[in-house]
Every structure is written in structure tokens, then in C-alpha cells.
């Protein structure tokens, strides 16, 4: 009977501690997308919003781990329990979690620090308590005398399982079925429950048979950690953290800035922790090391060297697989090298510090030293350098590993410098780099040669693509990478003619022909034969005094539809876009057609709320982040705001051209539910017209009569 009781006690102890960690991690990873959703509308849905939030979370996580380390190494068990419960009690004053009142982001500066401060005020203290739970509860478990207390790292897998389940349940269960206000209330109730569970764990430790001299006894047997081991842990945690944000940038730039897509890399990241801190790692880790080079062959060839016109999901799979194997190797090495429980909090402290540094590097350092997303390939190379290998002295054998990358780099630079017209040999060079991407597999047992040669291949490929694109200007802001490129078309007289293009990420956001007689002609998505040209032509007789609002500036092509008697207000969230569109050296639409336009800087929904009701005759929604419309601009609440600002016979035009998402379905549902009249035109560009592209637009109004002239015009065009 006594043996059964002991077994039950042991099992219930594991349930209590694992359950506490599970609840804590679940609350943490519900809070992250919850506040991401709250903050997105304030900053235009930029992927940088999520990345900055991640830096804040990682920073608070580090402070929580630092607190847990200091608490467990400088205070006795009873003191730890009392102090921690007191801080938890103070944190309850922050409930329910919510944004501070009158929260408005800056419009004239980078909003990164404003965003971090807002998060600190809103959820700083509760998130800090959540951050302390994983190391502190594991440390307490290691001191209660349980038969598995000598290796409590399995509890970390339970913690990450809670994180993963919460992260996946948010977009599929919580977000669709529970409103934001209720989410905040239920989360606060869950936090109170967690406080009770932590107190129960503290009570069990208090009653345990450990003596009050445990700290002194352990101190006498502590073995020192070497700096080389600490730095190795730091590198193994830093690189996956940076890769996580790099992959997040890639995914959210070219599809859509929505939490559901941002969750993909974070899910893979958490999954890696669950696997490597389980008993499976010893068997799986060697396979991860062997398979990583095989996965990298198509990844380097198609993601960097020759981005062919493949379906997007193929690129997505390639990036996710490369990311998965990279972090599995790094985290697998980290788990293999985990220390005894006497260094448990130090181990987690270094991990959290490295995670914070990785996030800070991507969010604060990289945008200032790089004008493109170059930190991503840089961390791919760093991950390859962290593959397991035996550290040896600087002998001839080690120096030989530098021969292949140095030789390849030298040949590449010589070719680039000596060949007069390098682009004539573009296909040959690309094919050569693809072959090298496969051959570099042979160097996999030599980590330095393998990593650096792979890095050289990516560097040469990126340089070649940069030359091929004829980039005149490129810069990076909080909202992404913008580039102005010069290209050549064959004009109406079969003569070559240069023109300028604006790119956000990989997506074209406008173009302009340079000859004086053609410089005022709107092109690409805004062409005269296209939906916008037809709209302005249809209402040409009646629109002389229109009040027009344009959300999203791009290169400024729409400005050339403006009449002198109209009043146009342009809304743009990114100051860098305004600088480019206003610079005649790149684009002259604004300076030629609308030099005195009213410009509003900031998120469109926030800016429009300040405008008078029933003010606009025409409101054009043309806001894009690369190829995606920020989702908060497509909601039914946003639609209600637009029509509140439109006159009773006003028109709303929505640009929905997209490579991956069927946005017309979203708008058609909203229009039907709001009883609005709507027309959609999926325009197919004539082949003979240069720089006129296929484009999709939706036009809405309160009354069908308002759109009838446009409907008749479209019917005539279709005939």
C-alpha cells in the first residue's frame, strides 16, 4: 500500500510540474499572436511588426531566465518561494491585459522602440512571470527528491508541447471563434490559474525532504563551466533564432502579413525543441546531420542561384525544410551538450540570451548595415559552420578547408571584373553555380570548406542577380526592402527604351517610361486601358470637383489621373516610399502631375478615422506589402470605415492583384453581407502595349445606380 502511494505521489508530482509548465507555455504562445493581432492595424500589417514583437518576447524571456538563475543560485528554497509568489501577486495588478489608452504609433520615425515600449506597458510584467516559469519550475523539480530529478530536461519538452499546441490552436480555434475582448478576458483567467499552480509547486518544494542546506551542499560540488562551452551554447542558440526571423520575413513578405503564416516557422522552431529534448534525439540527431546537406542542394540551387517560376508552395517547402534541418542540427547539438542540473539555469540563461541576441541582430542591426535581407543567407552559412566537427589546432589539414571557398571566390571576382558584358554569359554562370551547389555536397565532412563554399555560391548568385536587375537604388526600412531598377523595353518604333521600375521585395509596385511625351502615362496596374483608366474615363464629365483619397503611393502613377480642380489626399505608411516617389531622378509622376497633393504618413485606417465623415467621392485602396494586401484593411470593420468616410454616392476601388490569394472572395462576402453594389474586373493586358499588365480590381458603392455608368462601360469593352 505504501509503495502504491509512493508511486501515485511520484506520478502526481510529474503531472503538477509538467502541467504548470504546459499551462505557462500555452499562455505565453497565445499571448504572442493575440497581441500581434491587436498591434497589426496600428502599423500596416508589416512583417517587421511580428519580428519586433519577437525581439520583445525574447528580451523579456532572457530577463525572466536571468531572474530564475539569480533566484535559484542566491536564495534558499523557502526564500525563493516567498519572493516569487510576491512578484506574481504584483503582476496580477496588470490584468486584464490590454493596450494602453490612446496608443498611436509615430509617423515620422522608426516605430520599433515605440512598439517595444507599448508591449512593455501592456503585457511586460505578466509575460516576465511566464518567462521565469520554465527554468525555475524545472530547478524546483530537480530539488524535490523525485527519482527523475537528476535529469529534469524532459519537462522542457512538455513546455514546448504546450507552446506548440497553443500556437496552432490560436488561428484555427481561438481566433475564429472568440473575439479579441473575450480572448483578453479568458487569457487573464488562465493567468490566475497558472499563479495557483506555481504556488502549488512552491508548496510541494517547501514540504519536500530536502534540507535547508541544499544550496551550500550543491555549491561545494559545482564544476566550473568553461568559456568555450558557454560560447558554443550561445552560437547554437543564436543562429536558429536569427534564422527564425529571416524565414518569417521571407514568408510574410510575398504572401500575406497574417499571423497564420508567421506561425509556420515558429511552429517548426518549437517542434525542434520538443524533439531534441526528448529521448528520440540520440537516434535522430545523426540522421539530421546526414540529411541536411542533401536538402541544401535543391534549396541553394532554386532559392538563391536560379529562382525559377515554380509554384510558391515549392519555394515554401524548400525554405521550411532547409530551416528545419538547420535548427535540428543546432538544437540537437545543444541538447547533446546539456549540463547537469547544477548548471540548469545557466544553460537556459545562455540559451535565452542567445535567442534575444538573434532577434536583436535581425531587427536592430541588420536593417542598418544591410540594404537587403542578407542576414538570412549569412545565418545559413553560420548554421553549416556549427555542424558537429572535431576542433583541431591550426594545422595544414585545417587550413586546406579554406582552399575551395577562397579559390571559388577569386575566380568569381576575376570573372565579374574582367568580363565586359557579364550578362551575355548569365545562363552559363547560373548553370555553373547550380552544378557547384550539387558538387559542394562532397565537402560535407569538412564543415569550414562546406559552409564557406556554400556562402560563396550564394554571394556570387546574389551579386549576379543584382547586376542583371540594373538596380539604381535600394534601401531598407521598417516595412521592407525597396528597390528602383532600370530596364529596357522595345518601344512603338522597335527601338530600345529605358524605363524605371519600383520593387517592394520581389513584387513590382509601379513603372514609368522616361521620354518627356510618355512620362505622364500611368502604367502597370494603373494603365489607361485597365480598370483605373476606365473608372476615371467613365466619370470624366462628373468628377471635376471630386475629393479623392489614395491609400498606398507606390511610384505615384495614379496621380496623373488628377484634375486641377480635384483635391487628392495620399496615404502612405512608409516614409521611404514617399522619398522615392518624390524624387524625379527615379519617378516624376508626383512632381509632374500632383506636386501639391496632401500627404498623410501612417497607417491608412488610423489616418482615415481622423477625416470628416462623408468626405470622399472616390477612395482607392492600393496598399500592399510586397504582393500582399495587409489583412486588417480587408475586414468588414475596415469596409464600414471606408463607407463612413465616403459620400452617399461615393465609390470605393480596391486593388486585389495577387499571385497567391483569392482576395475577391473575401470582398464579395463582405459586399453581400453589407448589401453593397460591387463590380470586379480581372483585366487581361493586350500583348502589344508595353508595361500594361494583368490586374484585378473591385469597385463598390452603396447603390447599384452609382456604378451603372461603369458597368455599361465594362460591357462595351467586353464586346
In short:
This protein has 719 residues and is of the alpha/beta class. The protein is built from 24 helices and eleven strands.
Essential attributes:
719 residues, alpha/beta, Growth Hormone, Chain: A, Rossmann fold, 3 domains, 4-stranded antiparallel β-sheet, 24 helices
Structural write-up:
The longest helix has 38 residues, at 2-39. The protein has 3 domains: 2-210 and 227-385, Growth Hormone, Chain: A (Up-down Bundle), CATH 1.20.1250.20; 396-469, no CATH class; 520-718, Vaccinia Virus protein VP39 (Rossmann fold). The chain has helices spanning 2-39, 47-74, 77-91, 112-141, 154-177, 180-207, 214-221, 227-254, 259-276, 281-305, 312-336, 344-369, 375-385, 396-399, 403-418, 426-439, 447-469, 531-538, 575-581, 589-593, 604-609, 636-645, 663-673, 704-718; strands spanning 471-477, 480-490, 496-504, 507-513, 547-551, 567-572, 598-601, 616-621, 646-655, 677-683, 695-701. The protein has a 7-stranded mixed β-sheet with strand order 7-6-5-8-9-11-10, sandwiched between helices. The chain is an alpha/beta fold and 719 residues long. The N and C termini lie far apart (90 Å).
Q: Look up the CATH topology of the largest domain.
A: Growth Hormone, Chain: A
Strand order within the widest sheet?
7-6-5-8-9-11-10
Percentage of residues in strands? 5-15%
Q: Give the CA-CA distance, first to last residue.
A: 90 Å
Shape: globular
Low-confidence stretches: 1-9, 210-220
The DSSP helix count reads 24
Using only C-alpha atoms, the radius of gyration works out to: 29 Å
CATH class of the largest domain: Mainly Alpha
Strand tally is 11
